[in-house]
Write a structure and sequence with these properties.
Layout (H helix, E strand, L loop, with lengths): L1 H12 L2 H20 L10 H11 L4 H29 L1 H13 L3 H11 L9 H19 L1 H17 L5 H4 L2 H13 L13 H7 L2 H24 L3 H5 L5 H35 L23 H29 L5 H19 L7 H5 L2 H5 L1 H4 L5 E4 L2 E4 H26 L22 H12 L2 H17 L7 H13 L5 H29 L5 H15 L2 H17 L7 H6 L8 H15 L4 H6 L2 H5 L4 H33 L26 H30 L2 H20 L11 H4 L3 H4 L4
Antiparallel strand pairs: 1-2
């Protein structure tokens, strides 16, 4: 049995293809750890958590509480100063600033010098990120510090239930009352002993990662394919079944090998997650109670943080083995190679849909949690507390999830044993079938290379995955227009098109309204200065007019467009959406470019090396079209596929922006947009949009051609990917990490080029 187990493991683990895929998935997991935790200045980066962990290292719980409270007071004081200064810049906010200063005497003076020096930025580089981080740490510390109060509240609810007379015997037997009693029993053995508070970021981010789970699922599918499917394709199943030990020990060794693989791969990937966040976000005391982390204070398990990590790894491995045993049974039974993996993917998709879309308070809540995806969420199993209603009795979700996982394991194992011992459908998936349509041979290098590179070479699959990632990143970006932007939008949509007398009258009416507001504000201020009005009364009287005057900067923006139309011609157009689309406002497109570069390198890294690997260049040189014809076919496929792939991010960006900012007037002159008034007179907005999309597609084609050149230079798939990542992706990643000069060594400046940079206004 040991020899069989060792053989099954070595048969898959020592294959170069499997090792390469495992390393790539590990690198993909690390990439997603970086990608999902950006240090963009708007939210605290991992460096802030590491610096904070170093600051509180060695402190007692009382010292930690005092330290965090001081940080909170300082952050609130500096935030007050920033808010007052911001209000004093506008006419509307000046009155509110005076009221705030009166209500908080001395606070502005106490923190103004600290604000001016900038020393309050202790962990981040921007006030927004600094305040968000300190508030997060303060809330976490308060939640852990109040753990005794939380336990007291749980006991108090149970005591109240048993002591008040409102509950009749019938009510006392309800699920709600039983759940309260069970909660008190489950938390009875817990106390604040052993709690040593630390930021929960490193542990929660390392163990609650959906991308790591996805990599583990794919890795288990690869292992099953190498263990079962390839054996069937080589017609070895009949030989192994007739071996000395028979079918029983044979399939038992395969399933045991799958269990070992799931355990080792889970420990490896989640171990790398923990190491990554320990280095990037700081370490915590693993011997402390799990309730030391604010994310897991509701857990009823008396375990340490290390115990939680071990239980999570074991549970995830068992869940992966449960799904893998079903896929193994499907591989044994299926005559088609791909069908079992589609079934396995469908199983996970259905489980994820159950968990995501079934309401927690519905009658079908058990179906929400009792599935493979629900069991894979170990942060909720061990870090939370939930009882499900099973025929009126509260039963722990943890117990039911582990029981459900055990049932799936037994079912998958039994099916695998039964199907393997019967031996039906044991032959390879490539059976002789009558063609659904008549085969028509062709001599098109483009069609042949497209099938070889994009279908058989998995290039199309890689591009689809990265299209999904880019689409998700782009479409999930939130655009929140301010009140001033909403005013500008409403006026410009009414003015849109050719200037008319009605539109001129509208602008004159708006101008008169603002003039009236400023005149009244000036009049009230004069009366207050002369002593004819109290300052409080005058401030109240100015509020109405100040609320109107607050939108005057946007009206000036409209007036700028009106003057440009009068001088140079053109039409009114609402331009905010186009400014965001071209990258003139609203941030850069660096993350989008990184995904585009990585996807291109992975999809086209084998374009030339595939022929060197199979040694077919000598044969292809003797064909009618020769080596040059084959290369031309490859490059045509690369250019066509990369052009479509690199144009899609622009389409996603258009969809995401247009949902918030309407983008009309594609046939209007591009000069109608003030920022683009340097464009040629014949160019329309639509032509400008097509030019920008063509530029991004051209950059994508350039990336693909460089990757193809590296593939031909190195004559090796892995080396082409390595050099592609180093040359094309590494500079952009360094720029995202804060080394802004590195973007000049990539194609990103060309990718992010805006029209006003190409056609500057005179």
């Amino acid at each position: 049995m040991y020899r069989l187990l060792s053989y099954e493991l070595r048969k898959v683990w020592l294959r170069r293809g499997f090792l390469f895929a495992a390393v790539m998935l590990l690198l993909a997991d690390i990439f997603f750890l970086w990608y999902t935790n950006p240090d963009d200045g708007k939210s605290p980066g991992l460096r802030a958590y590491k610096m904070f962990s170093e600051d509180i290292s060695g402190m007692t719980e009382a010292e930690k509480s005092s330290f965090v409270r001081e940080l909170k007071e300082t952050a609130d004081g500096v935030s007050f100063v920033i808010r007052i200064l911001a209000m004093q810049k506008g006419a509307v906010g000046a009155q509110f600033a005076e009221q705030e200063l009166c209500e908080n005497p001395g606070l502005f003076e106490a923190y103004y010098d600290l604000y001016e020096s900038g020393e309050y930025l202790r962990y981040t580089d921007s006030p927004e990120a600094e305040f968000a981080f300190i508030n997060e740490m303060y809330e976490e510390e308060r939640k852990v510090a109040d753990y005794d109060a939380f336990l007291a509240a749980v006991r108090e609810r149970a005591d109240t239930l048993g002591g008040i007379s409102v509950f009749a015997p019938k009510d006392g037997d309800s699920f709600a009352s039983r759940n309260i009693k069970k909660s008190a029993e489950d938390f009875a053995s817990l106390s604040s002993d052993g709690i040593r508070w630390a930021p929960s970021k490193s542990i929660s981010a390392a163990t609650e990662n959906v991308w790591t789970d996805l990599c583990l699922i794919l890795l288990s599918f690869l292992f099953i394919g190498g263990m079962i499917t390839e054996e069937k394709q080589k017609m070895l199943s009949c030989v192994t079944r007739a071996a000395r030990f028979g079918s029983g020990p044979n399939i038992a060794s395969k399933l045991l090998a799958l269990l070992i693989h799931c355990t080792v791969s889970t420990a490896l990937l989640y171990g790398s997650n923990l190491l990554y966040f320990a280095l990037a976000a700081g370490r915590c005391d693993l011997t402390a109670s799990l309730q030391s982390l604010a994310s897991y204070t509701e857990s009823c398990l008396p375990i340490s943080i290390l115990g939680y990590i071990v239980l999570s790894v074991i549970t995830k491995a068992l869940v992966l083995f449960a799904s893998g045993s079903l896929v193994t049974a499907a591989c044994i039974a299926s005559e088609r190679v791909v069908l079992p993996y589609f079934c396995g993917a469908a199983l996970w998709v259905i489980s994820c849909a159950q968990y995501s879309f079934i309401p927690a308070a519905s009658k079908a809540s058990a179906a929400k949690y009792l599935n493979l995806y629900g069991a894979l969420r170990t942060e909720a199993l061990y870090g939370g507390y939930l009882n499900l209603d099973m025929f009126g009795s509260p039963v722990s979700r943890l117990t039911l999830s582990l029981f459900t996982t055990g049932i799936v394991i037994l079912s998958g194992t039994a099916l695998s044993f039964l199907l393997f011992s019967r031996g039906e459908a044991a032959r390879a998936g490539r059976t002789v079938r009558r063609a659904a349509r008549r085969f028509r041979p062709h001599a098109s290098p483009f069609r042949y290379e497209f099938h070889k590179l994009m279908a058989a070479g998995r290039g199309l699959l890689i591009l689809l995955v990265f299209c999904f990632l880019i689409g998700y990143s782009t479409l999930s970006r939130a655009y929140t227009p301010t009140a001033q932007e909403n005013y500008y939008m409403s006026v410009m949509l009414r003015l849109e098109g050719e200037p008319t007398k009605e539109k001129t009258a509208l602008l004159e009416a708006e101008s008169a309204r603002f003039k009236e507001a400023f005149d009244n504000i000036e009049k009230i201020e004069r009366l207050v200065a002369d002593g004819e009005l109290e300052s409080d009364v005058g401030g109240a009287m100015k509020l109405k007019w100040q609320s109107i005057a607050a939108f005057y900067p946007e009206f000036q923006r409209i007036g700028q467009q009106m003057r440009h139309i009068e001088e140079c011609g053109g039409k009114f157009i609402y331009d905010t959406g186009y400014l965001c689309l071209f990258g003139a406002v609203g941030g850069d497109m660096l993350r989008e470019f990184i995904l585009l570069s990585v996807g291109t390198v992975l999809a086209f890294g084998h374009v030339m090396s595939i022929e060197h690997k199979s040694g077919t260049w000598g044969l292809l040189c003797a064909t009618a079209r020769g080596r040059r014809g084959v290369i031309r076919g490859k490059l045509a496929v690369v250019c066509a596929a990369s052009a479509v792939f690199s144009a899609l991010p622009f389409v996603f960006r258009w969809i995401g922006i247009s949902r918030t900012f309407p983008m009309h007037g594609l046939m209007f002159p591009a000069q109608s947009i003030p920022l683009f008034r340097g464009c040629p007179s014949f160019m329309t907005v639509g032509m400008l949009v097509l030019l920008k999309m063509f530029l991004e597609a051209a950059v994508g084609v350039a990336l693909a051609l460089i990757t193809a050149g590296l593939s031909g230079w190195r004559k090796n798939h892995a080396q082409a990917i390595f050099f592609g990542m180093l040359i094309l992706c590494a500079p952009a990643v360094l720029a995202a990490l804060g080394f802004t000069f590195a973007r000049n060594f990539s194609l990103y400046p060309l990718y992010s080029l805006a029209p006003h940079s190409v056609f500057p206004a005179v």
